[in-house]
Amino acid sequence: MTITELVGEIKKKKSFLCVGLDVDLTKTPSHLLNTEDPIFEFNKQIIDATHHLAVAYKPNTAFYEAYGIKGWQSLDKTINYINQNYPEIFTIADAKRGDIGNTSTMYAKAFFEDLNFDSVTVAPYMGSDSVEPFLAFKDKFTIMLALTSNKGGLDFQGKDLINNKPLYKEVIKTSLTWNNSENLMFVVGATKAEYFKGIREIAPNSFLLVPGVGAQGGSLEGVCEFGLNKENIGLLINSSRGIIYASKGEDFANAAQIEAQKLQAQMAKILADNNIA
Amino acid sequence: MTITELVGEIKKKKSFLCVGLDVDLTKTPSHLLNTEDPIFEFNKQIIDATHHLAVAYKPNTAFYEAYGIKGWQSLDKTINYINQNYPEIFTIADAKRGDIGNTSTMYAKAFFEDLNFDSVTVAPYMGSDSVEPFLAFKDKFTIMLALTSNKGGLDFQGKDLINNKPLYKEVIKTSLTWNNSENLMFVVGATKAEYFKGIREIAPNSFLLVPGVGAQGGSLEGVCEFGLNKENIGLLINSSRGIIYASKGEDFANAAQIEAQKLQAQMAKILADNNIA
């Protein structure tokens, strides 16, 4: 998928919602547990119920790895289902990978070629040659951790460097000089909307994947105030638990649709207020 | 496994060698390609030929993920083979994982419980709550990236903080204050032996997993001069390509044994010179 296509979908659906498919079988409806592949069955129903309200889906690979080989089969079926039925959807493998050059190439092939995801999340700690192998894939996107919304996020990301800039800003700035950096996006947590102001000064046009709205307490309006780019929107707002676990009953997919609809309506208003779509 | 058991094995074998099982089917002997599971068959023969010379094996998970579900089956068979036949071996899942708290717990369970590895490598970028879920497992070890030996390793790890300390030193120092930090080890590349001096000032007793000796140019003697701890040794020196790809012929396992033997002999001499074993 290209950025132009992604932006086109956002404008068409009036939504920049990403649904996180973090499936924990202790939280899913019990009636699915008797099916052959409960994780895939859950995902399939969530996707069918929300695909017109979301532009992206993001399975976190940890939730699949935790179920071993069966989990990988569920992930494989999920990405194939999306690609076959909703090819307009932007898919994100939330894998947070990163290794030395030739090893990163192996990961990139696994996610971009074998599983055919549009994008994958990566960690920056090992530097340029751990990320550039991902960036080398045309029309695929590498979403690098910059500022995360978890409790320990600032432990290192927030440390000031000798130039008085926090590490996460140095990470963003440096990575934009790497080969094929036009294929970079960044993970930026929604904990403090003000952070987006400083990030937009360094990366005015980059797409930002934003977790932490909703369950983790971030504000959609706040993020958009400082993070929205009027040309290409530049934001993908992720919600996982707030949507997929809206109900634990047989109505779970419908309940997910209602929650996704609420976020989509807020996004449509924000886009309209900014004369975007 | 406990540290005391690991140190006991090192003294018994007079070796602190870790063999990296990074299996790339384009580099393995062609006669194995006709077997049912060439990756496992390769690993099995390498392990049988070197287990008395090494104290640890380290499969890099990228090489298995790259082959999809079949790759995960090969990894599963490999770790089971080691655990059943050579339970005295310390096993390392080189996965470089790290995510928000509840997600890191999923990864920890996958590697420590389902696959039953003794240890797993993790990335520090997301801070305390991305690593502590791994540290919570008793008699399991979490090997955190500190200073890596790849080309881009210093891009961020080498950046000086406002206190004039490079990031990798801050990462080591801070992480030693986390809960259950007695279960921490660190990845420190062998590129410059002098780095080990500064690291030993911060982490005098921690085990360091050291890639980059051999193929990547690091010197075993140099690393030991500054990195060896006379009480518990505190080093695991990894070699991957130099051992497992010593020959591409039918004699590959024997060739691997010869290379492992060379490193073990050097290690035995270093231990003797330091009056350790």
UniProtKB/TrEMBL annotation, chains A, B:
Family membership noted in the UniProt record:
Belongs to the OMP decarboxylase family. Type 2 subfamily.
The record's EC number reads: 4.1.1.23
- What InterPro entries does the annotation carry? Aldolase_TIM, OMPdecase_type-2, OMPdeCOase_dom, RibuloseP-bd_barrel
Where do the Orotidine 5'-phosphate decarboxylase domain residues begin and end? 16-256
Species in which this protein is naturally found = Wenyingzhuangia fucanilytica
User: Keywords for this entry?
Assistant: Decarboxylase, Lyase, Pyrimidine biosynthesis
**Protein name (database record):** Orotidine-5'-phosphate decarboxylase
Pfam families referenced in this protein's UniProt entry, alphabetically? OMPdecase
* GO MF, one example: orotidine-5'-phosphate decarboxylase activity
